[in-house]
Fold this protein.
Amino acid sequence: MKKAAIFALLITFFYSCGSKDRGELVGVNAKKKWFSEKPYGMALIPGGSFTMGKQDQDMIGSLNAPTKTVTVRPYYMDETEITNNEYKEFVFWVRDSVVRTRLAYQAEFASLGNANPDPNGKKRTAGIQQYAFKTADTTNLSPYQKYMFENYYQFDTIQPLNWQTEIVWNKNEYPDTDYVEVMDSLYIKKDDAVDGVRTFNTKFLNYKYSWFDRDNAARKGGDRKNFVQTEVLNIYPDTTVWVKDFNYSYNDPMHQDYFYHQSYGDYPVVGVTWNQANAFCNWRTKKKNDFLRGQKNVTLVPEFRLPTEAEWEYAARGGLEFATYPWGTGSTTSDRGCFLANFKPVRGNYAVDGALYTMEAKSFNANDYGLYNMAGNVSEWTNTAYNQSSYYMASTMNPNVEDRNNKRKITRGGSWKDVAYFLEVGSRDFEYADTARSYIGFRTVQNYIGTGNK
């Protein structure tokens, strides 16, 4: 008994000596001090209050944007609209994922001897086998890995894709017939080819992702799984919008070249629906966080998303209260008579401002927040659902009307085909979430963690 008491005293002594808080409540120590890192190509919008709404004459009598003082939190916003080159990175990632998945399954099939087996009966390591799933050693798993493998994992999740071996796109360099079979299935049929040129079939460019319906979860409650929504969406831009949007107009060259040709790489992407823009935001978040998961002691970044209507207008104003346009004045031209944005200044004369269609994403001067083309060039999707009375019912703190059942989504900024009225920072317009246009693009935002004070 005496020995037990001495042992207990020793344990208490050593425990108290090892404690650094001296019994005080000091909070959990983070691994290291964290600072918000500005994402590449984005500008910090400091947040604050402003007078939102139409502050000039409502020429069309819409009566849907009465003035209202609101406050928004700090956030990062893309300096430019998402460009063709940036969206192509998304498209190519999806394309390569599809190709590598098909090749990996075909490699597994071939290794079983059912498709062009090795003549010597050995497992092939060349040809399509270079693209096989990475081998997972299931004999040396930790208890956690073993449990997860037995209860949750499927074949392709425990064996990840091989991203190291480059995909061969030149048909004359395909390594074997199994490879040819896979690639042949992914290209348009010969009967659909123009002049015999077969291109990648864009109907396979489907992106699968999940999102959590926070609004319904907070209001209705229940099992979390009931509010996890999964989407499978074709993400290739609709290049036919250049033809469909304008009757009796020859815009075929834009349909043929705008998204394809490298000359338009720094132009804003168009032909993207609201749904596709959200898929891009999800992928951009995944891309960054997948990289961070490979680092040590890092914190994942907040999600990229579309801006709310209030965030968009606040950013467009550039800190200028009661401004009509992002540059502050009530005129669309400078004191030298030069146009300050890409729009339709004169009836029938689209090119007097320097361009018939869109212009490079960094055309014209940035506003005081460092944002380009917040007026003109292309209209931009926002996260907000359109409701004519939303200004009356929305909160004055980070106002937003997020309604997935309402397919009408707010677009802002006006475009190359619009008159000056739609370029005003207080003008509202909308389009349906599943509709793509040759004059609608988007830019993304990311929440700033902290107060935003510098």
User: Anything to note?
Assistant: The domain at 42-83+269-447 is CATH 3.90.1580.10 (paralog of FGE (formylglycine-generating enzyme)). The two ends are 62 Å apart (CA to CA). The CA atoms of residues 205 and 234 lie 5 Å apart.
